[in-house]
């Protein structure tokens, strides 16, 4: 896929009740191996495209909110229970799960979090130059996807 600057991407939950539109290029694209992501998603890791809030339009369909930490909020469709996005207090970002996009092959992660909890059968991503044992430091590089890459 070429430059996503003007592109609109769509996605939603499994039943179709909750939908979203993401415009442009995400700020960051990541994998997270923390236990909260693993438990919430019932998966060995979470995969996220992180957008500025003003780039994302969320439908008005009801969601269920799970307070996953002091500042973390995870939202799922109220009808089918599919996790669709995360928000953190004090941050103007929306974390959209790869699996909630209509085209799930668009993104390539640029970093991994909580690699100390990565499954021993799962090798590090060769194309993800930044690995963090735990949370990504606030002073970490922006790690935006490369413009014009085939997959972001």
Textual characterization of the structure:
With 152 residues, the chain is mostly beta strands. It has one domain (8-131): glutathione-dependent formaldehyde- activating enzyme (gfa) (Alpha-Beta Complex). It has one helix at 35-41; strands at 8-12, 19-23, 28-32, 46-52, 56-58, 63-67, 72-77, 83-88, 93-97, 111-113, 130-131. It has an 8-stranded mixed sheet. β1 (8-12) and β2 (19-23) form a beta hairpin. The protein is globular and about 40 Å long.
Key structural traits:
single chain; 152 residues; mainly beta; glutathione-dependent formaldehyde- activating enzyme (gfa); three-stranded antiparallel sheet; disordered C terminus
Provide a concise account of the structure shown.
By secondary structure, the protein is mainly β. The chain has one helix at 35-41; strands spanning 8-12, 19-23, 28-32, 46-52, 56-58, 63-67, 72-77, 83-88, 93-97, 111-113, 130-131.
Secondary-structure map with pairings?
Blueprint: E1 8-12, E2 19-23, E3 28-32, H1 35-41, E4 46-52, E5 56-58, E6 63-67, E7 72-77, E8 83-88, E9 93-97, E10 111-113, E11 130-131
Parallel strand pairs: 3-10, 10-11
Antiparallel strand pairs: 1-2, 2-5, 3-4, 4-9, 6-7, 7-8, 8-9
CATH superfamily: glutathione-dependent formaldehyde- activating enzyme (gfa)
Average predicted confidence as pLDDT: 83
Please tally the helical runs, counting DSSP H or I stretches of 4 or more residues. 1
User: Domains counted in the coordinates: how many?
Assistant: 1
CATH topology: glutathione-dependent formaldehyde- activating enzyme (gfa)
Report how far the terminal alpha carbons are from each other.
8 Å
Overall number of strands: 11
Strand order of the largest sheet: 6-7-8-9-4-3-10-11
Radius of gyration: 15 Å
Question: How much helical structure, as a percent, in the residues?
Answer: under 10%
Main beta sheet: strand number and arrangement? 8 strands, mixed
Highest-level CATH class: Alpha Beta
- SS content category: mainly beta
CATH architecture: Alpha-Beta Complex
SSE order, one letter for each helix or strand: EEEHEEEEEEEE
Strand portion: 25-35%
- The coarse silhouette is globular
């Amino acid at each position: 896929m070429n430059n996503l600057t003007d592109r609109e991407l769509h996605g939603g939950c499994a039943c179709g009740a909750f939908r979203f539109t993401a415009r442009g290029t995400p700020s960051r694209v990541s994998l997270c191996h923390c236990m909260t992501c693993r438990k919430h998603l019932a998966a060995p890791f979470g995969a996220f495209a992180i957008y500025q809030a003003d780039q994302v339009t969320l439908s008005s369909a009801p969601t269920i909110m799970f307070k996953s930490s002091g500042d973390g909020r995870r939202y799922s469709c109220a009808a089918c229970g599919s996790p669709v996005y995360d928000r953190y207090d004090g941050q103007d970002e929306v974390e959209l799960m790869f699996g909630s996009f209509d085209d799930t092959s668009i993104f390539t992660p640029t970093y991994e979090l909580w690699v100390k909890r990565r499954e021993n059968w799962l090798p590090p991503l060769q194309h993800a130059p930044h690995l963090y044992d735990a949370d990504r430091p606030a002073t970490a590089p922006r790690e935006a996807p490369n413009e014009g890459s085939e997959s972001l």
